[in-house]
Fold these 4 entries.
Entry 1:
Amino acid sequence: MATQTITATEAKPASFFATAPYIPPDAIFALTAEYNADSCPQKVNLGQGTYRDENGQPWVLPSVQKARDTLLSQGLYHEYLPILGLESFRNEAAKVALGAELYGKQRAKLAICQSLSGTGALHLAGLLLRSCRSPLPRVYVPSPTWSNHIQVFSSLGFQCESFKYYDEQKKTLDIESYLATLRAAEPGSIVILHACAHNPTGCDPSREQWKQIGAIMKERSLFPLFDAAYLGFNSGSVDDDAFAMRYVVDELQMEAGVCMSFAKNMGLYGERVGCLFFATGSEKTAKNTQSVLEMLQRSEVSNPPAYGARIASAILSSDDLRDMWYADLTTMSGRIRSMRRALYDALIKYGAHGSWEPLIRQSGMFGFLGLSPYVVNKLKEKYHVYMASNSRISIAGLNPSNVDYVARSIAECLDES
Ligand SMILES: Cc1ncc(COP(=O)(O)O)c(C=O)c1O
């Protein structure tokens, strides 16, 4: 019998990863890395949406500091949390979103699960919703939106449908286009709604517009999935910022999903403190839905991280600490509002070409400047001012020492282009 010889090249199997494509780094994280590597003393980071104090430094909220001290004095625990997360945190988080009264009314019909911050809540929501419907419903996402929305839902196999949210010419919400999209959407579709402080445009529907949006969603049987990553950042008041979610659940009696993040409003960025809850139509549905969430969570992360949830829970379940947190939200949202105004004033002072009124009409963490990618790049290369390529700026990156420089740089760049 003829023997077969195996050569060295044949013996080496092709890499298991041979078909893996190269995916460019996430734009906003790459921008942060570029900023960190920049040695220019005048550099300004308006990229990533992270709060900075008036000295440009990360801010540990006094309420968080106090909760942390209390936790440490009680001793360290490193035990696992239950699969659904820390019960006191889950309940308090849902109470923050719905308000104590509505929470009390709805409690038995809520399915609640702690999540890996807001992103994890969206992902878990996608997993749950995917398990409920076949064929998969479409997911409607506003355009523009937070870049990760499409990535999260398309990675789960959903077809994402972008719809026009923002009118570039008028620099306002395009409510007509929004409502027309909802009217034409197939019943059962999922719609991603920024609960407040729309990222990146800073343009939210008014209360009247929310009511119109809600009415059509109810009529068309569309599923509202709220992304509540910035509660308290618009107005300083969680209650005001939660209007849309509460309206949909209470007034319209609709089923809805809410994806909460405590990254921004408690400054717990790295602790990954989030919560997903569904307001369902009955106690039985809530119980079943929560059991599915528990199974999904088990297979994804087994159980969520404890430390940040303990801090958030300590704040939310103590009257004193909760009041401190409300004051911290006022500090952050107030400083952002005053920097928004200061940038506007300085742009006018330097005669920067363009209409800047939209900037002061916008709210939340971001300003949407409407600059061309050429100008955005020039601001980075020549003036060391960093912002997202769509000219979204994180207003929290501005402070009294750099706002004049940023406005002058924008004015000069626009003159030169
Ligand atoms: C609109 C929006 N949703 C969700 C998130 C999720 O953030 P995290 O996963 O850090 O809580 C962000 C973060 O930037 C965001 O801007």
Note: The mean pLDDT is 96.
Entry 2:
Amino acid sequence: MLLPILLSAVQAAAPMVRASPVPPRLVVSLVIDQLRPDYLERWRPQFRGGLAWLLREGVFYANGEQDHAMTSTAAGHSTMLSGRSPASTGIIANDLGVPDRASPLIRSGGPGASPHRFRGTTLADWMVARNPATRIFSISRKDRGAIMAIGRARVPVYWYTQGTFTTSRYYADSLPSWLSAWNAREPATRLAGHAWELSRPAADYPEADARPFERGGIRHVFPHVLSTDPVAAAVELEAHTLIDSLTLDAAWAGVRATGLGTDAITDLLAISLSATDNIGHRYGPGSREVHDHLLNVDRWLGIFLDSLATIVPLDQLVVSLTSDHGVTEYPEAGAGGRASIGTEVTALNAWGRDTIGVRAGAVGYSGLLMARTGDLAKRGVDIDSLAGAIAARVRRLPGVLTVYTPRTLRAARATDAEAGRWRRQLPSDAEWLVAASLRPGWIWGRVGGETGHGTTNLDDRHVPILFRVPGTTPVRITRMVRTIDIGPTFAALLDIKPMERVEGVALREVLPKRSSR
Ligand SMILES: [Zn+2]
């Protein structure tokens, strides 16, 4: 369905013109959370909107990778415009990403958030360093999607919580009037009772609707109806297809209010659409829900890009599309299984408390077991032998492929690809004991009812990377490229020098002839 509030934003259809390259007025960094590249290829014949346009006009790298070990949202977003891996951005896991009690939200009870753990700079900082008049704007349903996309910059950054878009004290002391007005229309609560129906005839979807394992077999078939209670509906929306429409509508309101793209100075707009992630977790990449949701995203993106084209000439509009991670199919669909290091976490905390009287602080993120190794060492614990003992037990868990300890990771050969991913994940000052990788098809987490990502496997690392740059030739590239290449590519396009050493490289197919170097 098309939201009336979004439709009202459409002022004219985008003219499809190709002109000689001129400096961009607007760079759009577009992220679709948990977008697998095969989605774009499988459903391309049914796309008519923004995804169709990007695929038609863009340089499409079908084998992009989030080339690090723990493929999750905060870490993934931190790589894109920084040109650096999580080991360098400092973002290990979602829980160790944006949560920040010192930065409460404005007019909302949601958890505080800021980029206080983010290390170094991103394209946003590089652009502002070159021209302080550069406008930056970032928005997402998720705090980590909005914040981690641009790093530490104190600029307009907004995310959704409990029915409204807001920000935290890190960024501002109050909401701008345009956003207060947007929130006052109560677009979220007004969707109470809305039914998500298929947008095409059922015969157009090869996927079965009622796979028994989807969402634990509860409320797993169309239509998906939001609660009739407005407060409950506003919360349910966080995982609903329509939240991406609301995010784009708020983005458009913000673009107009802040004047992005309205003068010759290149501005930066970062948008991360989150619903694909929630829908993928619940129903899986082989579901009818993910298929239909991507058709919705395609349509809403088309409206948004048409709207943008009314203020930014298409020959001055640069767009990238990528994702923070992929996803693994439900193990219950036939392959792999579920693994957990939870038993080891519990055992280590109990041992620390009962045996040596120390808070071990053990916590597990995907296959990573972190603990207060400094405190343990001070109490005389031999960290190498402790890590080795835990690693030996983790190695025996079903589905586990390889296990590293700090010592074995240091000693691993440069040709060890798994070791390389963990090295690019873990900052040198991270306190950890064991890092485990799973066999393909396996996921972390014991409970059923959802599938996931977070492993080092290709299904979780694999993302599309697409650039729509005026003056380039649309082409599909199969060479493996990385999300850390996106920031350096934009820097080269804009003739900006990154303010620090980056790991990624500028992708040559995206650089127009004039700026090839
Ligand atoms: Zn997720």
Note: The domain at 22-331+457-515 is CATH 3.40.720.10 (Alkaline Phosphatase, subunit A).
Entry 3:
Amino acid sequence: MPTHSPWVDDPEGYGRVSRILHWGMALLLVWQLLSAVVRAVAEHSPLDAFFWSTHVGTGFTIAWLAILRGAWGLANLRRRPATEGPALLRKAAALGHIALYGLLILVPALGILRAFGKGRDLTIYGHQVFAPVTPGPNAALGSFAGEVHEFLGWTLFALIAGHIAMALWHGFVRRDGTFGSMTRGPAARHLAARV
Ligand code: HEM
């Protein structure tokens, strides 16, 4: 049986706060992927105008949710489920998760740095953070940040694809309860243990 409140993490599975943050961010990242793919393949189309209008706000939301989730993860570190699988894969999983959190914060920060350097408007949730200025304070820095933002943005989506593949491997090949600990929470490990 879970040893804590259903809201906090438990060695038997993730609590409600972690699961809400995880799946909420997953939805936002699917939306962000759509905005980036439509921009890459159909820039200036009406579909691009629709998705792009949400890119900055969604990206900013992803960044602060990642900070909140990282803080919640650290606060729950001692009672989180242990990583399952061979030692090398456990190490790869730890590094992969650090890279995911890092990119979830770094990619949006670079998008904002690009806007600042190039002197572009930055409006978040309808509030103007910087007005456009010509020339921008540092166009070279802005261009560099933009290039790195795009490269690391695609890298983040590739890492997420790897994360999903590994979660499915745990869920459907190893059947070790890892997948269920993020879907059904603590109850899932008890079900896995009974199989
Ligand atoms: C997790 C959050 C984010 C992800 C994953 C992400 C991802 C991406 C990707 C993959 C591209 C390249 C699209 C293409 O190839 O055409 C891109 C472009 C861009 N992103 Fe983001 N982004 C995020 C957040 C932000 C934020 C917060 C800003 C804030 C200013 C921003 C501003 C931009 C800009 C200005 C471009 C270039 C658009 C263009 O001129 O084509 N992004 N982003």
Note: The chain has six helices and two strands.
Entry 4:
Amino acid sequence: MKLTRRNFLAWAGLSAMGAVACDVFEDELKVQSPVALPEDLVKGKENWYATLCRTCPNSEGVVVRVIEGRAKKIQGNPNYPTNLGAQSARCDLGLQQLYHPDRLSNPLRLNGAKASGRFDSITWSRALAEVSKELESRDGSVAMISPPMRGHSAVIADEFIKAFGGKRIEFESLDLRTYRAAIKNVFGQDIQPHYDIGNAEYVLSFGADFLSTWVSPTQWEVGYGEFRDSDHSHRGIMTHVDSRFSVTASNADRWIPIAPGQEGKLALSIAYVIIEEGLYPSDVDINGLTSGQGLNALAGYSPENIGSQLGTPDNVLGSHSVSELIRTVAREFASHSPAIAIGGGTAGASTNGLFNLESIYLLNHLVGSVGKEGGVVFNPEPPIKGLKGYSNSHTLADIEELVNDIKASKIKMLFVYNANPVYGAPDWAGLEQVLNSNDLYMVNIGSFVNETNHYADMILPDRNYIEDWGNDVPEPAAGYQTIGVQQPIVNPLSDMDPRSSSDVLLSLAQDLGKDGNMPWKSLEDALKGMSDELFNLNRGSVSGSTKQEFWTNLLRQGGWWDKSVVGRDQSNINGLISKITDKDKEPNLSGNGDFYLVPFLHNSLLDGRNGDIPWAQGTPDPITSVAWQTWIEINDKVAVERGIREGDVIEVKSGASSITGIAFVSPAQPPSVISIPLGQGRTKGSAYATDRLDGESANVLNIIENNKIDGTEGLAWAATTVSITNTGESLRIAKFEGDYESREVGFTEGEELIKTTSPGDHDH
Ligand code: SF4
């Protein structure tokens, strides 16, 4: 029988007499009655409101379904330019953050020694009075750590910190500094470009898991869907080069495993073939790119010279050589126009990461896809003066400088704003030690207990994005001017008293007369001012006969965009190839282990920021299907040699430290690589983040060695080598697929790449 509200209530009546036939519903039905209906059965009117999601850094447009004042569902906003209604497994996390039982409800003041974990709940007026007093006495020595920020929240945070004479560091564990530098050097842009995958014929990607976690995955998944067009009238071809079998690798037509740090050499070897064989379009300025040297500019990068240096395992090549593979890829890439080359992730995370990424993005100039449909599409500056269209992306080197400033008492007060750098920075950065100092007063703004606010003097609970105002200039946008708008859709629950963090900073600045560059009463006020400026432009996607009507329509639509204002190519290609080859150096590795360590962002936990959310913990990884644990990806043949079986607890050791996790044995893992997801190993937070058995949860950031990227000082997080040891312990791995054993098949040359598995082959 179909379960309808009517027959549900009929069953509920029966249940009172103990006559319910269906065990599944028995418990539920006993507690239900027409006078105490569950919320989902209230016959309320539903409303959908547009806003901006803040769960991933790319902050996309969503619509939220509200019934009787409660948010029930989050979906992609079909109108929003970057995701066009698409969403990912992460989208529903917003609801679990909103209604999480462990969410901080009131300001908390340290009561006892630092890191004692003893906090008193206090009122906002007492909390703000104390913070204000500390700010006044420590004026000129105030700093802030936040994630990358854009829109008016970023403007307010920057002006606040400037007013008190300090600096704001935008920190993320796997920073994008090197990617930004490569885009600037190759295309002359500060703002990240968009990759028009939907109109491309060929995608050649290196290291960037752009269909899962890299930069703007939802936007590029939409493009990928068009690229693979289901009616087969248009089906692009994709080759992915990566040290790990990622989600993007699994969607490619061809995956080329490579040793971390060799991606640039491969890209320049592809460039060599394109120039040598004259495969470039007639309007490409080869003379300019090579400073008139032609192929000599790439002497030494012929496939025959480079092939043996890439670390590509022989078994993926069949009877072909690596040099033949390079020539094949170069010819395919150059003959399918428009074609895009994309690089990021591991490809930019060795000590020579800047060289690698510049070499990769150079390929776009060689095939004439820069600033063209189906190629690299640039984004314009935002239409509002002062509303910055890109974030700063500082690096771990900035955190190390801050640590030194705290030690030298140059910084005496620290705001940590929705960030968890104690978890997100390797131990050797020394942040945790200086936060424990009594000379430093730390204010933490956030929603959950974590490893950083464990050292706070004051914790101020923030509003969830569904309860708060905000705006964003998406980076990357879809190639035209876009501003997203966030509005409060529900009120906090009656027992919660969070405040908008931007409003808290504004009120502190106003209280101390330091709000000269912040002429707004509140964040809402700043957004209304922006709306009036957009109204005066008299263009774009929102209309209204009055400013008030325009504001209402802006909120209704979830943002403003104008397809007629696009970015433009500002590349200076003269001598570009020699500027890149001058940077060519072998990657520095440290750790003295037998394997490259390749960490990667977890598909739902990302860098650990979502660890408190059960939905994020329980969402199976798309490649391994593992949930809740730290798994260690090991090649199947290596596992046999080392006597390792799936579920064994493995110690992974670098020079810096060691961690343990559970072996996941895979034929798709390159033999020289150990891959480990970020996101677990939390020590402070909700039970969902921290309650784990010994050996099954670890923070891979703690074993990354202190290597920096030449030219950017970004963390070279793919420049560590590790050794592995079987601890002799074994745990059940929490995965959704059955037990499988792999075996090779293949009847023709090249098919050795393909492996299949059969249920029941596995004996443990
Ligand atoms: S993919 Fe991320 S940013 Fe986009 S809507 Fe979902 S949770 Fe939000």
Note: The chain is about 25% helix and 20% strand.
